[in-house]
Amino acid sequence: MDGPDYYIPAAALGVALAFKLPGTLRDWRDPLLRSVCALLVLAACTFFFAAPPTIAAVNRLTGVANFSAPLVYCILTAFSASCLVLLVNWRGGPPQETRRVSVRWVVGYGVVVVLLIVLFLLGEAPEERLRDLDTHYATTPYIREMIVLYLIAHSVAAVGMTALCWRWSLQVRGWLRGGLVVIVFGSLFNLAYGVSKFTAVFARWAGHDWDALSTLAAPPLASVGALLSAIGFVLPLVGQRLSDTWHDWAAYRQLGTLWRELRAASAPGTPTVRISFFSPVELRVTQRESDIHDGLLQLDPYFDHGLRASAYEEAVADGAEPREAQAVADAAMVAAALRSRAADPEGEIISSAQAYTSEAAQGPRDLVRMSLALRHSPVVAAVRVRAARSESGIR
């Protein structure tokens, strides 16, 4: 693997961090958001500092041969800890217990980081090795222990993540399950990285040369594993946000039929609130629902509750569920009221002025059902035809 193979994933993770950072700064007290940002930072740093050009540059700048080795090992160890801490915060539970477990992981892996530095300082690695340090110094005192220690820490995290995420994925659904499955695959790649490295090191101890496992097979496994783990943690957060936005836009669009008919029938001079082009979709849905409620209030004197009851019975007879039948009945009553108001622009009340108390006006989902029924329901279409005939008969 060359420099671009490391720098491109690092840049992708940096972009993901840039999208998450504003929300994290607004709610810095949220440990989950902090953990996500820490994971993205460490994952990006792992790719960046593990690239051979960066390794050579760091060694040159520090003037210490193989200074990048403990640096990369420490970053990779910290990344493993961040995965475990994020999983603990993601899983949730009593705040004190979550904080206690997180602190244990941080302290444990913090000790590993300190030991890695100490072992490097005690050992001797004078010859710079950009790609094969693990196997080249596999038998060197202290450097050998440093290599084994970071591989153990990384493998323990990979095994723990695989087991915990797989067990959790069997209990959940949706985006969360998808993210957990991706993390499981990422952890398996990380575990394969550890196995490859261990095998090459053990082979050196036995006097064999299996260095290709460490220099050729392990780096791609580590890159894919780190990238998949980061994606798995971010996927449920981003996916849920995109899903919510999609549903909001769908609701906004589906409310259009009811909103347009009520706005067209509103009294002249009715004030309107203009929404900015850049307004979030949640605000657009709220404003559209508010306009619909205002229109329903204006139509209230024209509502024929007897017609609504008969439309409900007709919808039920056609096989509609109670909630759907209620929306059809409300839409039928609105359609008839719109015709009545158009025929009675002077405002003569044709029905008892009872308050509109239908549950359909209480929530956006029911309003969406009303809007869809207003457009597609054969019961509503029949009511429109009967209302038009009645109007012609009166004339």
Brief overview:
The protein has 395 residues and is mostly helical. The chain has helices spanning 3-26, 31-50, 52-62, 68-91, 95-122, 133-136, 143-169, 174-205, 211-254, 256-264, 281-299, 305-317, 322-343, 364-376, 378-394. Helix content is 78%, strand content 0%.
Keywords summarizing the entry:
78% helix; 2 domains; single chain; 15 helices; Rhopdopsin 7-helix transmembrane proteins; mainly alpha; 395 residues
Written overview of the protein:
With 395 residues, this protein is mostly helical. The protein folds into two domains: 242 residues, Up-down Bundle (Rhopdopsin 7-helix transmembrane proteins); 140 residues, no CATH class. Helix content is 78%, strand content 0%. α9 packs parallel to α11.
